[in-house]
Each structure stands twice: as structure tokens, then as C-alpha cells.
Amino acid sequence: MKLLLINPNTTASMTHAMAHTARTVAAPGTVVVGRQPSFGPASIESHFDEVFAAAGVAEQVKLAQGEDFDAVVIACFGDPGLDAARELTCAPVLGIAEAAFHAVSFVATGFSVVTTMRRTCITAERLVQRYGFERVCRGVHGTDIPVLALEDGGDAVLAQIEAAARAALDRDGSGAIVLGCGGMADLCTVLQQRLGVPVVDGVSAAVKLAEALVGLGLKTEKRGDYAAPLPKRWTGWAAPLGNADSQGLPRTE
Ligand code: 5HY
Predict the structure, then answer these.
(1) To the nearest 5 percent, what fractions of the chain are helix, strand and coil?
(2) What distance in angstroms lies between residue 5's CA and the mean position of ligand 1's atoms?
(3) CA of 141 relative to ligand 1 center, distance in Å
(4) Region for 197 from its dihedrals, namely left if φ exceeds 0, alpha if ψ lies in -120 to 50, beta otherwise
(5) Looking at the predicted structure, is the pLDDT value of residue 217 above 70?
(6) Ligand 1 centre from 26 Cα, in Å?
(7) Lowest mean pLDDT among 48-52, 187-191, 194-198, 242-246
(8) Does residue 244 register a pLDDT over 60?
(9) Which of 6, 10, 18, 77 to mutate to test the pocket of ligand 1 (most atoms within 8 A of CB)?
């Protein structure tokens, strides 16, 4: 199967790192293609960043139409643009937050999320509500480690995340940890060894769940709200993204 991994921020090195993690867990025969938007923030750490990240996801799914991807992974813990992406393709689309919540709920009755900036905790908390994991998620904890500081953070950043995870396990009384940032994907194995509890990275969880959905022959429904967007007039820089032709007029098939 061919899997499109979209990093919704515009930091190519982070896209490469997450695509690498995806390839390490992918089944033989799963081809992972990593991409990021042509516009938007280098990291997503605010509601403003998130708006453009969502548009960037829509751009990349739109541009990939016709490339026969079997599944799409949105590799940012806010799952930006998830519903819009599902309108633009029949392939299953998985956000790493939603995938991580499903995966961890099979191995623990309570989990804690450890993420980057404290100000983004609300985003994860809202996703817990949206996806119906209130009874399993026992806490969301920010470390105030900037997303891009994860890249070359080294042992200091790893130790900081480990300490935050230990504190979360004790405080929440939970039995597992979900890593609340795509940039933490490559820290999962060492953290699990050190903490001695299940640690879930959403990138890996999304890849394995995508393989399962494709293996089941499941596709995104097109009968209801995930049907293709209605053609209409689009203006301005986003017109090419819409269902509009270069003059901004509805594109007729
Ligand atoms: C992420 N930001 O996974 C989120 C993490 C966060 O650029 N990639 C980002 O802090 O919400």
C-alpha cells in the first residue's frame, strides 16, 4: 500500500524524521511518502498556526488526488484539517492524535498525554472530548518544550519529557503515556524502556491502523458529510485549492 504522511508544519527535517519513524514500523510493501504544505508555520503551537496548518493539509491532499494513495496520515497532534481531508479522498485519513487514543485504549484503562507547549494542551483536551476518550484520558500535560526544540534536543529534552511523563503517571494514576507531538515519535521506544509502561506515538499508531483499515478494504464514506466539497466560486490565493479553475469559476468535470 501507498501511504501519504503529511506533516502540517513546513519544517522538512521534521517531515523526514516522522516519515523515517513511519517506515520503521510499516509492514513490508507499505510505501511511505512524506510531504508538507507549500505555505504556513514552521511549527504549530497556537490556534493561529493551526488554521493555516489545516489549509496546508487540504492543499496537500488536494494536490495528491490522482496519485492513488491508499491512506493518508496527518502527522500533527492537533489533527488539523482531518475532516476536510476526508472530504477530498476516499482513502482512510488518520490523525495521529485520534490514532494514538484508539491504540492506547486497547492496552490501558487510563492514559496521560505529554505534549509540547502548555498553551496547546487545550487542543489535545478538545480532541479527547471530540473523539469520546474522556473516560480513558486522565490528563494532558505541557512541558513548554518548543516543537522545533525536539529535533536536536538531545538527552536534556528526553530527560525533561521522561520527568513530565513520570509526574503525569503518578498524578493521574494512569497506566500509559501518549506522546502529544509528531516530533516526539522517535523518542517513543527509549521512553517506553525507561518508564516501563506503554508509550504510544501517534505516527506509528496511525501507520499501523491505516494498514489495518486498508487491509479491511475500508474507505471514507461519500454518502454524507465526507462527500466531496461542492464546486463554487473561490477568489484570491486559495482559489487554486478550491474547486475553482484559474479564473475562479466553478471547475466543470
Ligand atoms: C505537532 N505541533 O505534532 C504539534 C504539537 C503541538 O508542529 N507538530 C507541530 O504542540 O500541538
Answers:
(1) 45, 15, 40
(2) 15
(3) 14
(4) beta
(5) yes
(6) 22
(7) 242-246
(8) no
(9) 77
